[in-house]
């Protein structure tokens, strides 16, 4: 089983991203779960969302405490949230950032941290506003590029099925981010 934990802020699309990822894996014949955890329910507040992907039935029904992958939609959260909490030795981190992975100091080997400038991609396609870009589909495109769990065409198909506003732009953002991943 692969467990993915998303860290974002309300309005960035972390919950939708977890659901799109689950749908993409389901389309590939996998068993899935996707669910959010909300603290203060307001725009801009920290949000955590979870996705589990497995080849067998998933019986566990708790939050993800030991993720295989952590996806960070808002790098500002790194100042206030311990995103590495519970990570396994071989876990990977994907961060929405213009910085290279080596800029971040997590005490992990460089090949375990990836970045993608999802914010610039989202703004290019008019997803959200300059003050609050919606980066979820761009980050999912990048995730497809670093993980064997889903292929980009499944992410694209799931965006087309799940996202009803600016569908074409969201698909374009995922495709572009797929090719912009920076590896440590």
Fold topology:
Blueprint (H helix, E strand, L loop, with lengths): L1 E8 L4 H14 L3 E8 L7 E9 L14 E4 L19 E5 L16 E4 L1 H7 L3 E2 L2 E2 L2 H11 L5 H11 L4 H12 L3 E2 L1
Parallel strand pairs: 1-4, 4-5, 5-6
Antiparallel strand pairs: 1-3, 2-3, 6-9, 7-8
Structural commentary:
This protein is of the alpha/beta class and 184 residues long. 30% of the residues lie in helices and 24% in strands. It has five helices and nine strands. The strands form two sheets. The protein has a seven-stranded mixed β-sheet with strand order 2-3-1-4-5-6-9, with helices on one face. The protein has a two-stranded antiparallel ribbon with strand order 7-8. Helix 1 packs across helix 3 (136-146), helix 2 (118-124) crosses helix 3 and helix 3 (136-146) packs antiparallel against helix 4. The longest helix is centred in the first third of the chain and has 14 residues, at 14-27.
Features:
184 residues; alpha/beta; seven-stranded mixed sheet; two-stranded antiparallel ribbon; 9 strands; globular
Order of helices and strands: EHEEEEEHEEHHHE
Low-confidence stretches: none
Which class best fits the helix and strand makeup? alpha/beta
Span of the ends, CA to CA? 25 Å
> How big a fraction of the residues is strand?
15-25%
Q: How many strand elements?
A: 9
Biggest sheet statistics: 7 strands, mixed
Helix content: 25-40%
Spatial shape: globular
Query: How confident is the prediction overall: mean pLDDT?
Result: 91
User: Helix segment count?
Assistant: 5
Radius of gyration: 15 Å
Order of strands in the sheet with the most strands? 2-3-1-4-5-6-9
């Amino acid at each position: 089983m692969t467990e993915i934990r998303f860290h974002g802020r309300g309005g960035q699309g972390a919950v939708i991203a977890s659901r799109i990822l689950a749908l993409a894996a389901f389309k590939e014949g996998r068993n899935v779960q996707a669910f959010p955890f909300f603290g203060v329910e307001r725009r801009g507040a920290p949000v955590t969302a979870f996705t589990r992907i497995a080849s067998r039935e998933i019986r566990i029904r708790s939050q993800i405490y030991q993720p295989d992958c952590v996806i960070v939609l808002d790098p500002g959260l790194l100042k206030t949230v311990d995103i590495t909490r519970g990570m396994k030795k071989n876990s990977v981190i994907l961060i929405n950032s213009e910085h290279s992975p080596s800029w971040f100091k997590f005490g992990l080997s460089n090949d375990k941290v990836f970045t993608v400038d999802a914010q610039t991609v989202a703004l290019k396609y008019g997803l959200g506003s300059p003050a609050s870009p919606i980066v979820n589909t761009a980050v999912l495109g990048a995730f497809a590029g670093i993980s064997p769990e889903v292929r980009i065409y499944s992410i694209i198909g799931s965006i087309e099925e799940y996202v009803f506003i600016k569908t074409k732009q969201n698909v374009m953002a995922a495709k572009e981010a797929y090719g912009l991943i920076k590896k440590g």
